[in-house]
Amino acid sequence: MDPSDGHDPSNETDYPTEQTPFLRKGPHPPPKPPFTPKPTSQQLWPTLLTVASLALLFNMGMHISAAPSLAILQGIICRNYYEKGVTDGLGPGGLGGSGGGGGGGGLSFEDDRCKIGPVQSEVAEVSAWKDVFEILPAVALAIPWGVLTDRIGRKKVLLLALFGLLLNEAWARLVYRFSDIFPVRAVWFGGLFQAIGAGSTSFASIAYVLVADVCPAEKRSTAFGYLLASTIISRLIFVPVGGYLISIDVWLAMWIGYLVEVLGFVVAAVFVKETLPVAAASDPSSPSQSEPLTGADNTDSSTTDSTKKPQTVKEHVEHYLEKAKEAGTWMLQNPKIVLLLICFWLYMMGEQAEMLLMIQYASKRLGWSFGKASLLPSLGALTNLLTLIILLPFLSVLLSPSSPYFPSLPSLRMSEPRKDTLLAQVFATFLTLGCFLIAVPIPHFSFLASGEVLYSAGAAFVCTYGAASVGRPVAAGLFGAGLRWGGR
Question: What pLDDT, in 10s, does the model give residues 51-82?
């Protein structure tokens, strides 16, 4: 139909959709489908700028606090270790400091006596399990909160998630500040606050949904790339900023980081606009969200039950469990998929542990301060960013069949599947070499730096999430085992 005559079929009451049955019972006309406006660039750029700024602010706050929180945790554990009467050449009660909790004293969190194996092992363990207890409530409640996101709106659930994150961060600071009152492992209970809005899980998901709601499909990969870039840039700049602030006042860094996160919450409350389609929010029983109309020959209830969409939280959970069962059965019938998932799982174990454990590892192995050691994750972020915006696009064009480069070398022209396979193998090799250089027991900066560069270049090719609940504890356990075996 010619659109130039002013006729808009999407507004007709008898315009069919993909859910309209071919056979209809009775002479009644089909109901009017819900109207969903198409995304426009006028909606896209303000939303993208707001969401990217929000992601940048929250990541900025967390990255500023990363090294200082590790330093404070080490100071508390170190103080407790020596106050129990462990000697190590100092004698019982030989240390009088607070180690980063409340008051001053003779023991600083940067004291070389805190680099001993038992202290470092416990620091890694407490930090790792803190991450686990933070992510478990968020993952467990992701489905119910996801359902509510489509019912009450993206913004409301986003604000609840951010509020839960702020409470979690405030609890960690409370425990660390009053470490003479709270046991250090009380920091694990902060994860309960992430049950509010599903915390970091909802934050990450809703950020992408907000953009997807107003972004045309052909522009989504670019828009999502901007969101990813904001996270990488935050890590590149603000992890070393937090490390530098340690030399001024470790608690100054912690409070600056928290205030930046509060600013992010204000940005979300004031500037984020609701993007949930009006029809989806106001009419849950519309054809787009409920069972399809039944044709004349399909009045059987079993047919309706098998095709209707879930409505309640219970139905959504049952639906996702059924889909997970089907996916599991399919994967077990495809050994290559299982092998690929195992590779992703192993990668994510290392990725989850990489930043904080790298700071701790470099501080222990090279004898660096936490401020100096925080430069390594920043180096990795720079490598990751350059790989994403320069190296990967260049290699992709170079190896494509229509590449304008090196016409005298036809062997460089590859089909898309072959090109993707080769790039995956090359960057997986980077990952492996990077891990090897990081693990080499030679206390020299060049090995760690080279390993971080290769690892981060390889990681730029991997876009997946998983193993978050086991990666940090396993890595922390291996770190502790290495310390017990005497490796530097």
Answer: 999 999 999 999 999 999 999 999 999 988 88
